[in-house]
Amino acid sequence: MSAHGTPIPMTSYKSGPLKGEAHVPGDKSISHRSLILGAMTVGETKVTGLLEGQDVLDTAKAMQAFGADIEKRGETWHIHGVGVGGFGEPENVIDCGNSGTGVRLIMGAMATCPITATFTGDASLNKRPMARVTDPLALFGARAYGRSGGRLPMTIVGAANPVPVRYATPVPSAQVKSAVLLAGLNAPGETVVIEREATRDHSERMLAGFGATITTEDTDEGRVITLQGRPEFTPQTIIVPRDPSSAAFPVCAALITEGSDVLVPNIGLNPTRAGLFFTLQDMGADLTFENMREEGGEPVADLRAKFSPDLKGIEVPAERAASMIDEYPVLSAVAAFAQGKTHMPGVKELRVKESDRIDAMATGLRAAGITVDEGEDWWTVHGRGFGDVPGGATVQSHLDHRIAMSFLVMGLATEKPMSVDDGQPIATSFPIFEGLMAQLGARIDRD
Ligand SMILES: O=C(O)C1=C[C@@H](OP(=O)(O)O)[C@@H](O)[C@H](O)C1
Ligand SMILES: C=C(OP(=O)(O)O)C(=O)O
């Protein structure tokens, strides 16, 4: 969805106590992958709990353009796929809207099919680097023609006779890893991806679920993932777990608002995703995992977050970065209410998300009265402690849902309200954010 409508300015006001249950939507990463793998499978894959955020809806549309039949009946999405290597050539440009995951995974999935497709996105996506994906796709035999700097719009000419690839990812990125694995599906023989730092492993888990032969081995080189090409996929019934990256917002809101006690049920605690929650506990948050269990091969718990007035700033371990990469914006908002400094190293990937997230957060935090230091690969938030964060700023969301939601959560506990210039991007990942927060007792208004 490239067309960006009228901005929606929003303001959040000191609130609390927040009480009740927050039922957040389905996991965005798993939702994209369900649609793409379903589209690569002959027969009917059924998905419930799919995130109906704009990013995922754009991926659904794209899969239809490549030939899959996708329909929602009742609460279930039904996908009739075309098989591995069966994608047809889209008649039109594929618009992935705001979604890095969507465009990069789909490029991978089509790169070993004998077809050509052109991709575009919104103003944010068209600034993001794509060479990280097109470089390894070239090794399969695919060609990419984009704007300078490897930016969208971009045309990919798929390899007619793909060869398998062995690729060590130069950046810690599940999107790059997944693009290579999806391309490897239609290459004969063994495709190998090596990642120095483990990133989210939803693709590996789901590929195995659909019937691919895929192994993961931790070695001195890093994590080595080996996939056998040209598998026979079996349609699946998928229940998408709730998104820990969305859960982060009500959890953090509860920690910083006086008297709060919020339960966020059924949250996936896959270790490659759960870093924020351990970091908050390290800061002294009253955050507990209740009813720990296993569902669909993933650890799941109900999160209980209570007002935590004595948070302390910490050193966030760099090796934890990949497991909480999307949560640094909201963590930095919480860090403003902690005593002392929170130092966050090893995070240069934050500079190439929907916005430069270090710059976007640092600018807004400073406007709200918080000192922030930053370098290319790190930043430090100087917390002022609970009850001493001025707020009173209007900040830019830069077409970035997580920036918008982070400042709106922050404003629930600052002395003066916090405003964002545009809350519209929230719909990409968390379309029910406003209603859910209101139900808990948060005052977040459209201006
Ligand atoms: O694979 C995925 O589903 C995602 C991977 C991460 O991006 P990178 O691969 O760029 O780190 C993350 O930031 C994004 O929200 C979702
Ligand atoms: C980085 C994100 O998404 P994407 O890369 O898919 O745009 C995100 O959701 O925080």
Characterise the protein shown here.
Belongs to the EPSP synthase family. It is found in: Cytoplasm. Phosphoenolpyruvate binds at residues 28, 100, 128, 175, 357, 402. Residues 14-435 form the Enolpyruvate transferase domain. The structure is a single chain. The chain is 28% helix and 28% strand. Strand 8 (143-147) and strand 9 form a beta hairpin. The radius of gyration is 21 Å and the shape is globular. By secondary structure, it is an alpha+beta fold. The model has no long low-confidence stretch (mean pLDDT 97). The protein has twelve helices and 23 strands. The two termini are 24 Å apart. A four-stranded mixed beta sheet has the order 21-22-1-23. A four-stranded mixed beta sheet has the order 2-15-17-16. It has a four-stranded mixed beta sheet with strand order 4-5-3-14, with helices on one face. Shikimate-3-phosphate is lined by residues 29, 100-101, 173-175, 178, 200, 325-326, 349.
Name the descriptors.
UDP-n-acetylglucosamine1-carboxyvinyl-transferase, Chain, 23 strands, single chain, 2 domains, 28% strand, four-stranded mixed beta sheet, 447 residues, 28% helix, alpha+beta
Percent of residues in β-strands: 25-35%
Derived structural class: alpha+beta
- Poorly predicted regions are none
Helix coverage percent: 25-40%
CA-CA gap between termini = 24 Å
Total discrete domains: 2
Helical run tally: 12
**Spatial arrangement of strands, main beta sheet:** 21-22-1-23
